[in-house]
């Protein structure tokens, strides 16, 4: 709502307002509209048919493409996301819905289900293309008997399958009807037919009057589909040889040659053969007749009638119409019953007295399967040493393993050797099984591939024994031929390769399970592994038990991170620097940490205290009284520092510390706590922990040697004004190992009011006392023993030489010293923020300084550093 | 430190929650379930945001990337999966471990994932590239890796073989400390100077990182056979650990005294917990229930309810002092309300008007809790948008 409509609100209006009428718009006349119903449209109103000249049937979009935008080529679409959604495409997917409608190209009509349709037989179902395509075989074999009513009626009337339908006929009638059927074209005239019948009658046999035959079955005239391109009625060459029967391997009985000699010596009628034969048939009768003795008559007169032969024999003991077989029937082959196993005892199947009695029958294929062997037997096969309890008194004949193995497998234990009459004496006295350890030569004893042939086995063993040496000929070898010998050698070689147990190398890979294999029951509790110490040494375990954590329980090993890991962690990669630089470099690296640390240990008392300190480097220091510190320091250092330009502007460094102020380090927490504890004198335990974290005095010593000679200071300060001094060292090798990490808690809790009191007397001692706590204080790894070795792995400043000697001595003394506590307000703390880049003094330039001055220099630099900060 | 109170409870329906983890800024949390799923929650609002399914076995740990765009998770199916947070699809699947992967962590910039496994190895996976093999494999541990912590240049791994191993990338050195007890979890204090190690002997031990010395031992809880986790609060003042008894123990870091105990679910182990990176919120997981602990809302007076007044120019939200009232159902009354509040939008069901727009007489304080209930005839009159003349109200009343 706005102001304007508040006025309108007071007016009252009736009726429906007209549409707003705009002055400049004139209502136009109605446009000409085409009559809409001149075109054939589809259900969607799209024009479906055009004139013949404009495209006829309309498809797609404007007869062109699928969409208004045009044709878009198929783009690759990853199916990774929706693998499950991929379905096979069907033709229907590409059809319009009109196509599927009643008059479309693929109408989908409704249909009654088969059970409701009038048809009795189920529609022939199509057989899917499963793994076995086509009609199921079983269905082909077993067809349900289906008789129509007509068949049943015929049966009732005496019809049999294979007979024709109709009244019984005599043989003559049947023959006549058969002839009748064969006649195509015109029927014979009635007068001629009886003559034919008479002729046939006369030739036939004696039982034609009394017997009636069922008419022949109607032989449907089946038109064979012509599948070749030969002439009508032609069938190509068969595999029969032209003149003889089928080739030898096919057997003679079944197939006869198509080339049949009808009458001996007269004519060869050839059916269904190659063209040439048929063509020549009329003229040249004997073209293929071969000279055969059968073509000739050996006696005078015509062919002898063969009827009388049959007649003569028929009389004796033979039924009328039957002929005695010329050959006796082949005897039914009788097979011998299977040989029973030797240990078979005839027993009714499952004849047990009670049903709880175990079946006595042994499985037939015993010894062949893995599970039928006992653990010992399997072990022996593998060449394992037996478990001590498994040693059984040897009773060779009764031993079940021997029985099993002897019969079924060609492996044998020593026990069988006795049976097998193997001679070697040393084999008999050995253990049941051969351990993996001494598997070298004795392996072969276990495996007896030629146990069936003792002589051969003996030869085999001999072969194994002196495989390397030349095999001398034996007397039994002489019995074999040279070929046999060679063959046997090859066999032995093969066997020696094959029958080898797990060798020592392989055997070492396996060990006995210490825990039961409870794979089946995952819920069984695993016994608590209380003695899991990894690779911890005895001393480490003892130390850990005693609670003496620290040096004793710690172990450092070099480790090399991959280059890519370093890259991802934004850490400079180790080992990229050339090795030569390491050698060039002096042992001391001039990192700021180094100076601070060495100075820390200038004082004796100081070092003792600091040995307890295992402190924190506070990233997150509160900025306390920075200004105050600055002013104080500046007064201290004004005398020594000659250039103000060197100052790293401590004010900015302090203020640039952002974000972490609220968080105290653990060390500070301990400090805080220690102050309270001192006041309250609570517990000794707490003060001990405080000892470790009392850092204050550490920083006193930092400023001990502040007033060293100024010339060194100027060298070290990276100032632009002090060009001369810089140039002196400009060609010095750069310290590649400079610690690039932000300064951690070293600068925290620096106590500046102690500086003045310390610096007067401390210079001399400082040199000697540069000591070992470096590791604890600054997290600079020190490996005093293998320092040379580890050089490549050390990151950050190097340890001065003199420090290393002292590294080991100190820790004992340190704990005795009592800590000094001071309230926080007393302490004046300087903060060097990690972000202030200036506080990171490049110490590289100083590196080339003479080594004898090393320690002195350190002090100087340290001092100068403070001065810079102060100003 | 005052006691934390359960603020919200997430019923994860994940059978058992194996791990619960805050994301990088503590606004969301991930729960890893035995049902092979990872769920992303807004714990403050008890809101299930997304479920990530694709692991073939229990998910054992997960971590969110620093930009909260990806999740890395590890599972008992031996794989580590990198997930896209928004789509919920696995981006990569790392199958380098030979056994179930127990822990996974991102490095500081989420460019690498570091996973530890039952196969005693720690593998570095390059998340940025398409590389399927681990960039580096640490095989120093002799038993299962139970926890991994990453700083900007260190990798600290704890193992069942009673060792803490710190791999310093800058120095190129591995420092292993033998602790003597199975370490079930190890974390670092925020200042990066101390290890906090949960040991299987029902203690939490504080070690100095640089020297390897024992600084403090915290006892009182019960670890039994569980891989209990620990945490340190944002100010490094308290050590927190779960217990097999279903309690959460808070120890003072210095005095090692138990300062408070939170009861999650008695006699059910609290195996996983996660502390908010900056504030005093704690997530504990017990069975399939995750509780967000924190200070109750009234304390700082700030409300994070999302219910607010719909009157233009009024920004009040629901607090103890301010109630919200729905618009009346009655048409005439509703018209009067909308006119009074100058709401130009259509009034929906969810729109409310806060109590600042009513005079005292308009509502009754009812019940024990003194809930404000509005009288039927009340119309908002106070603190309304001012630009309309009074005549308007008169007009309506006339």
Termini gap of chain A: 67 Å
Q: Give the class of chain A from helix and strand content and strand pairing.
A: mainly alpha
Give the largest interface: A-B, 70 and 66 residues
Mean pLDDT of chain B: 85
How would you portray this structure in words?
The complex is a heterodimer of chains A (871) and B (398). The longest helix of chain A is centred in the middle third of the chain and has 17 residues, at 482-498. The relative contact order of chain A is 0.06. Chain A starts with a helix and ends with a helix. Chain A has helices at residues 3-8, 97-100, 137-141, 149-156, 171-182, 192-203, 275-280, 307-314, 375-382, 400-408, 414-419, 425-429, 439-446, 454-465, 482-498, 504-507, 538-546, 563-568, 579-584, 592-600, 604-612, 626-637, 650-655, 666-680, 684-693, 696-702, 710-716, 723-728, 755-759, 763-769, 774-778, 787-790, 801-806, 811-814, 854-870, and strands at 169-170, 212-213, 259-263, 267-270, 554-558. By secondary structure, chain A is mainly alpha-helical. In chain A, strand 3 and strand 4 (267-270) form a beta hairpin. Chain B has 398 residues and is mainly beta. Chain B folds into two domains: 5-294, 7 Propeller (Methylamine Dehydrogenase, Chain H), CATH 2.130.10; 299-397, no CATH class. Helix content of chain B is 5%, strand content 43%. Chain B contains two helices and 32 strands. Chain B has helices at residues 331-341, 391-397; strands at residues 5-11, 17-22, 29-33, 37-42, 47-53, 59-64, 70-75, 80-84, 90-94, 101-106, 112-117, 122-126, 136-138, 145-150, 154-159, 163-168, 173-178, 183-188, 194-199, 203-208, 214-219, 230-232, 238-242, 247-252, 258-263, 270-275, 282-286, 289-294, 324-326, 352-354, 363-366, 371-374. Chain B has a four-stranded antiparallel beta sheet, with no helix packed on it. In chain B, strands 2-3-4-5 form a four-stranded antiparallel beta sheet, with no helix packed on it. In chain B, strand 4 and strand 5 (47-53) form a beta hairpin.
